[in-house]
Design brief:
Shape: globular
Strand order of the largest sheet: 6-7-8-3-9-10-12-11
Mean pLDDT: 87
Length: 340
């Protein structure tokens, strides 16, 4: 088994707001192994982006603050580092691909200048070496005419080309981990497939670990080795990609899978939505965060948090239905093995 290069334990991160304290990330623990693609999936507002931004301390502090927990990159604690110390990690050890390249790139700076920003303050790299590295990385991410693109501005590029530039910026420092926060959200399906194939290819070439954040289960199935399912600021299920899709154990994961069409879904068949709304993280429920929306909820579900039940070396689930005394129910209303 590959070595863990990132270890997160009991992470709790919140925000002070005018309405009170928002508990965005609640007791989250996971690790990232060398050379793997780890997917984090869940609805908007479940805490997946905040969790990923905690790794590089990108959430504004204040109003954000760490309540407790640990983030260790190669054994070094991240949560206690100064901003100056974090600059040695951001873009160099850990790269970040943001959601929307349209707004993440600086419209007033050339592509070359934005790629080279990673090297600002480093005296060991000459101006000529910076340019050579920028052109090399543009070629690596499949951008044609790199010399010309180097001199262009973001508005002169297509959406797919901008996203390739964002990947180039994330890769230029040769990081060990890339965090990709919904990297294909604003792209059409053809360009999305190209970007995902590019990420997978780069992972194989460079042995870079990728944390892929998405709400798209199709992307998870295509790309990931392991998956974390988040809801209400917590991880409710984790496992290998096959275990998540074929041995689904949490009703929320089942709801996500059944709310999308498969290749065998009849055109007249209605998809099954997840009724209700996510929990209010100003005042998180004391029990399971999904209990108010779960059709299998029992009395204990709203009264106490379920423990994390270990189903296999990789597969765990935080649900009272996994308790030995719980009633046996079928959480899957249709067979997802066909056409998945």
């Amino acid at each position: 088994m590959a070595e863990n290069i990132l270890e997160i334990k009991n992470l709790q991160f919140s925000f002070h707001t005018y309405g009170g304290v928002v508990k965005s990330v609640r007791d989250v623990s996971f690790n990232v192994r060398e050379g793997e693609i780890l997917g984090i999936v869940g609805e908007s507002g479940c805490g997946k982006s905040v969790t990923s931004q905690c790794i590089l301390r990108l959430n504004p502090e204040p109003p954000g603050f760490f309540e407790s927990g640990s983030i260790k990159y190669r054994g070094e604690e991240i949560t206690t580092k100064t901003d100056k110390e974090m600059r040695k990690i951001r873009g160099v050890e850990i790269g970040f691909i943001f959601q929307d390249p349209m707004t993440s790139l600086n419209p007033t700076a050339t592509i070359g200048k934005q790629i080279e920003e990673v090297f600002v303050g480093r005296k060991d790299i000459s101006k000529k070496e910076r340019k050579e590295r920028a052109l090399e990385i543009l070629r690596l991410v499949g951008i044609n005419e790199p010399e010309r693109r180097y001199r262009q501005y973001p508005h002169e590029l297509s959406g797919g080309m901008k996203q390739r530039v964002m990947i180039a910026i994330a890769l230029v420092g040769k990081p060990s981990i890339i965090i990709a926060d919904e990297p294909t959200t604003s792209l059409d399906v053809t360009i999305e497939a190209q970007i995902l194939d590019l990420l997978k290819d780069l992972k194989e070439k460079l042995n870079t670990s990728i944390i892929l954040i998405t709400h798209d289960l199709g992307v998870i199935a295509k790309m990931c080795d392991r998956v974390l399912v988040m809801y209400g600021g917590k991880i409710v299920e984790r496992g290998s990609v096959d275990e998540i899709f074929y041995e689904t154990s949490h009703p929320y994961t089942a709801g996500l899978i059944q709310s999308i069409a498969t290749l065998n879904t009849d055109k007249n068949q209605k998809l099954i939505p997840i009724d209700g709304t996510p929990p209010d993280l100003f005042a998180p429920p004391k029990g399971c965060p999904f209990s108010a929306r779960c059709e299998f909820a029992m009395k204990i579900c709203s009264e106490a948090l379920p423990e994390e039940y270990v189903l296999s070396p990789e597969h765990t689930c935080s649900c009272w239905l996994r308790h030995p005394d719980a009633p046996k129910v079928n959480i899957m209303k249709r067979d997802t093995k066909e056409g998945s």
